[in-house]
Each structure stands twice: as structure tokens, then as C-alpha cells.
Design brief:
single chain; mainly alpha; 2 helices; 65% helix; 0% strand
Length: 82
């Protein structure tokens, strides 16, 4: 009886470790797929379209702030934004 109890405890520990190992592999695989399809495809499409998300090319300007362009706006619309 003692041997059988010892066997089942070892069996339970072994399957627990196997489950943790398999879950780590599945998580790595799924995260790799998300990275490749999510970040990779966006990166490739932005390079094809020549889109620069972080417009940070070096220049002689001391700031990276850009001016906001207000088209067709008058002062009455700006005084009450909500």
C-alpha cells in the first residue's frame, strides 16, 4: 500500500511538471505568433507605405513638438470646446 501511495504521489508530481513545461512551450509559441503577425506585419506594411510613426529625424531644431494646424476654425469654436 505504501508503494502504491508513493507511486501515485510521484505520478502526480511528474504530470504537474509536464503540464508546466507544456504550458510554457504553448505560451512562447502563441506570443511568438502574436508578435510576428501583429508587430511584424504592421512594420512591413509601414515600410512599404513609407510611414514613420515616430517622426524623430535629427535636425537643428531643439524640440520635437509640432505645430497644430487649425483649419476653418474661428475664435468662437475655440472658446467653448465642449
Amino acid at each position: 500500500m505504501e508503494r502504491l501511495n508513493f507511486f501515485f504521489r510521484g505520478f502526480k508530481v511528474g504530470f504537474g511538471e509536464l503540464g508546466h513545461g507544456v504550458s510554457k512551450l504553448i505560451n512562447i509559441f502563441l506570443l511568438l505568433l502574436v508578435y510576428i503577425f501583429g508587430v511584424g506585419l504592421i512594420s512591413i506594411s509601414s515600410k512599404i507605405r513609407k510611414k514613420n510613426f515616430l517622426n524623430m529625424k535629427p535636425s537643428e531644431v531643439s524640440t520635437y513638438w509640432t505645430d497644430k494646424i487649425n483649419r476653418n476654425k474661428n475664435l468662437e469654436d475655440s472658446s467653448k470646446p465642449f
